[in-house]
Amino acid sequence: MSKASIKNREGEKIVFDLDIARPQKGLAFIMPGLGGFKEQPHIQVMAEVFKARDFTVLLIDPLNSFGESSGDYRDSTVDTHYETLVSVIEWAKNQPWYQEPFALAGHSLGAMAVALYAENNQGEVAALAPISVVVSGKLSMQAHEKFKKEEMVKWQETGWLTKPSKSKPGIIKKLPWSHMENRLKYNLLLGADKLTMPLLLVVGSEDISTPSEHQKIFFANIPGEKKQLHIIKGSPHTFVKDEHLEELKDIFNKWIKTWS
Q1: N or C: which end of the chain has fewer CB within 10 A?
Q2: CATH code of the domain covering residue 66
Q3: Which of these, 34, 35, 57, lies nearest to 45 by C-alpha position?
Q4: DSSP per-residue string spanning 173-238
Q5: What predicted TM-score, i.e. pTM, was given to this entire model?
Q6: Confidence band (pLDDT; 50, 70, 90) for 127?
Q7: If residue 100 lies in a helix (H) or strand (E), which one and from where to where?
Q8: Residues 140-179: tens digit of each pLDDT
Q9: Is residue 228 part of a domain?
Q10: Is 182 exposed, middle or buried (0-12, 13-18, 19+ CB in 10 A)?
Q11: How many CB atoms lie within 10 A of CB 260?
């Protein structure tokens, strides 16, 4: 595994880990979620499974997150996640190990970014794994209003959502209401009919950010039979406990075997 970085069109630095398989059977790009970073255990689990199947893997730190890429968390949006992914893929297209079609995987907002890319570039994507995916801004808003009503009211009234980071202890996350306004522009259901490649959805039964009900709606809108939906009992939005990570790894491994 080696660390690499590029500059996007705006001159912002994007950092990612690159593991080139020799021999190479496939290529996979993996995107963490809002405030996420490539060292998170659930992101590493996805990478491990791809690498075990002889895939070249790129683990990407999104812009405006808590990884090594440029930017401030308060500027994080669906747009910046998507643009990070596009910049890395465009760079990869000029590398000797690049191949199409490739696999895409991501978590939460990163899952929305990879799913959007698959909807917009269907022919480039061999398989898609949007884990705990934000299906749409509207559904995301509904989840906040249902499970975190007081937090939502305060966010709208003050213009800021402020909370401690669980993945980076000691850091206080501040997110402006404009983030939600940006999120409301997106809806994966509108392009779900284009997702004809092998597709894997996984969500925790205790997820209140992207609950299983949302995943079932998305699943129902995806055509064909090359799709799977798994619910990991007892897990919240981010898979942290060893037993949940092991289950995620097992699901991923079995899924990849069906198409690779």
Answers
A1: N
A2: 3.40.50.1820
A3: 57
A4: EEEEHHHHHHHTT-BGGGGGGG--S-EEEEEETT-SSS-HHHHHHHHHHS-SS-EEEEEETT--SS
A5: 0.97
A6: very high
A7: none
A8: 999 999 999 999 999 999 999 998 888 888 888 999 999 9
A9: yes
A10: middle
A11: 16
